[in-house]
């Protein structure tokens, strides 16, 4: 946009105002804490506003500050901000067929009962907004990784829960495309929902086949992507379809995820601590390197610490070690030093004589792991020092458990960190749980509700934290900015 005057984020303020009109339904059910008060990037501001109307006023004001404080910053708005479903009014939506891609990939038990409905609940605000504005919602998702049509991966078990949460009867199609689906779509009244069958029953979905994407698009007038958990996949229903449907906009859940995982992490309230755990350093290299650019404190736990210990010349017994990553571990330690990041490794560990829930265990200093024993959790001194370090922070992001938390005996460190973050969240610290096993740990402890943000995407959140762009986000329309 060529203008001598600095562009402002007027469109974001508009988004904020429109989001405010959405009402409480637009607030994500996952959101419990407040947004970081630190200077957020403008994209995050827009997303915060749309995802949570309570933030609208704050966001509009922050957007003005961002616009006036830095023309460089506002250029970033123009290139990064995505158009939001909250930008669409009843005039845009009434009677329109809206293709909504959600991530309803929920766990089912042997009787096809949903065992964790988090993703269903997280999808509701966007659908509710569309229904209330008179749209005809064509809802699409995958479930599992079926190879062709597989009855156990049908989306049928989602219908009762969706209907209950939305307060209307959701209709289900037996297919994804084709004449029967087209007929059902043509019969949809305003403010109704048609759930398509598992989009991965067509191999063309994962191949991002343009003809298949075109057929999906032909069902609708416009597109909303709210499938954060699948936004790192360039599939027909997440990326391909945007080439045939305009506008293509972000849903409220997608916005909220980006708000926290990009916004709060890029411009955090400081001190900003990252806790990274999990099994292997190799699967977290990207995220550690990226976080070292942003955080003040990095706490490491989980199986990866033994590669760091060994790189420092300590004996690690039969703990998990990636021999080919010893140099990398050394260079990450050096990078932390160079960046002035305070990197903490556990000072003690809980070791086991075998990898089993009933293994014999003992607590030893990190420097004294005997041969034949393996470290499966961080020890009590480490929990205490990690906790007191976390006390000093204002923003914490956590990805990966501190130990083998699936075994009760070695879940203590992970559970203690989960409780500490819950405690900090209650004191106003922004706490972000970045998907995957850390979410399972937080849920196991029963403190999920108090965290500022719990991501609904494991792989997607990891890619975002690594600084990667997600195809499902990139493909969406840019928010319009205007010069004043
Ligand atoms: N000390 C350890 N030794 C072996 N495995 C571990 C250890 N600590 C944690 N793990 C395992 O790491 C796994 C999670 O790793 P990862 O997939 O990288 O994390 P996330 O899913 O949070 O991204 C868990 O299954 C856990 O049992
Ligand atoms: O569950 C999902 O990802 P996650 O296990 O990384 O959170 C998403 O629904 C994506 O599924 P996929 O990894 O089969 O593409």
UniProtKB/TrEMBL annotation:
Q: Does the keyword Plastid apply?
A: yes
Q: Which GO terms describe its biological process?
A: galactolipid biosynthetic process; gluconeogenesis; glycolytic process; reductive pentose-phosphate cycle; thylakoid membrane organization
Question: Which pathway or pathways does this protein act in?
Answer: Carbohydrate biosynthesis; Calvin cycle
The GO terms this record gives for MF are: ADP binding; ATP binding; metal ion binding; phosphoglycerate kinase activity; protein kinase activity
Q: What PROSITE patterns does this protein map onto?
A: PGLYCERATE_KINASE
One Pfam annotation reads PGK
Write the record's keywords in alphabetical order, separated by commas. Answer: ATP-binding, Calvin cycle, Chloroplast, Kinase, Magnesium, Metal-binding, Nucleotide-binding, Plastid, Transferase, Transit peptide
Coarse class of the primary localization is: plastid
Q: Where in the cell is it found?
A: Plastid, Chloroplast
**What cofactors does the UniProt entry give for this protein?**
Mg(2+)
Similarity-based family? Belongs to the phosphoglycerate kinase family.
> Subunit notes for this chain?
Monomer.
**Name of this protein:** Phosphoglycerate kinase
């Amino acid at each position: 946009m060529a203008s001598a005057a600095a562009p402002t984020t007027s469109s974001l303020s508009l988004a904020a105002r429109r989001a405010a009109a959405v009402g409480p339904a637009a607030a994500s059910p996952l959101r419990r804490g407040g947004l970081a008060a630190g200077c957020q990037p403008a994209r995050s501001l827009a997303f915060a506003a749309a995802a949570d109307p309570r933030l609208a006023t704050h966001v509009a004001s922050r957007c003005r500050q961002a616009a006036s404080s830095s023309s460089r910053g506002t250029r970033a708005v123009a290139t990064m901000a995505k158009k939001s479903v909250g930008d669409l009014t009843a005039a845009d939506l009434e009677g329109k067929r809206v293709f909504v891609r959600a991530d309803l990939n929920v766990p089912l038990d042997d009787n096809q009962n949903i065992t964790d409905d988090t993703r269903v609940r997280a999808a509701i605000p966007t659908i509710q907004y569309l229904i209330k504005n008179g749209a005809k919602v064509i809802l699409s998702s995958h479930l599992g990784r079926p190879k062709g049509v597989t009855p156990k991966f049908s989306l049928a078990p989602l219908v009762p829960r969706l209907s209950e949460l939305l307060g209307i009867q959701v209709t289900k199609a037996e297919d994804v495309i084709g004449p029967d689906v087209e007929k059902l779509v043509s019969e949809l009244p305003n403010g109704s929902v048609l759930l398509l069958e598992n989009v991965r029953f067509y191999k063309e979905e994962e191949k991002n086949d343009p003809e298949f994407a075109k057929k999906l698009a032909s069902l609708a007038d416009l597109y909303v992507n709210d499938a954060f958990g699948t936004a790192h996949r360039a599939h027909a229903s997440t990326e391909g379809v945007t080439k045939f449907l305009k506008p293509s906009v972000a849903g409220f859940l997608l916005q909220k995820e980006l708000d926290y995982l990009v916004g709060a992490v890029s411009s955090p309230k400081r001190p900003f601590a990252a806790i990274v755990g999990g099994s292997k350093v190799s699967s977290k290299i990207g995220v550690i390197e990226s976080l070292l650019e942003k955080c003040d404190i990095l706490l490491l736990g989980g199986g990866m610490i033994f590669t760091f210990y060994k790189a420092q010349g300590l004996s690690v017994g039969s703990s998990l070690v990636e021999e080919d990553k010893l140099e990398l571990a050394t260079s990450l330690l050096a990078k932390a030093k160079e960046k002035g990041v305070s990197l903490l490794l556990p000072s003690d560990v809980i070791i086991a004589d075998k990898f089993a829930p009933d293994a014999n265990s003992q607590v030893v200093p990190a420097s004294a792991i005997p041969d034949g024993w393996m470290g499966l959790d961080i020890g009590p001194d480490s929990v205490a020092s990690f906790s007191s370090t976390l006390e000093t922070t204002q923003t914490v992001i956590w990805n990966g458990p501190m130990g083998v938390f699936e075994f009760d005996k070695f879940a203590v460190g992970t559970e203690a960190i989960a409780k500490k973050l819950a405690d900090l969240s209650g004191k106003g610290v922004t706490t972000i749980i970045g998907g995957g096993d850390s979410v399972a740990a937080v849920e196991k402890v029963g403190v999920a509700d108090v965290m500022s943000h719990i991501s609904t995407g494991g792989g997607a959140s990891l890619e975002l934290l690594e600084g990667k762009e997600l195809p499902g986000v990139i493909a969406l329309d840019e928010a319009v900015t205007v010069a004043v």
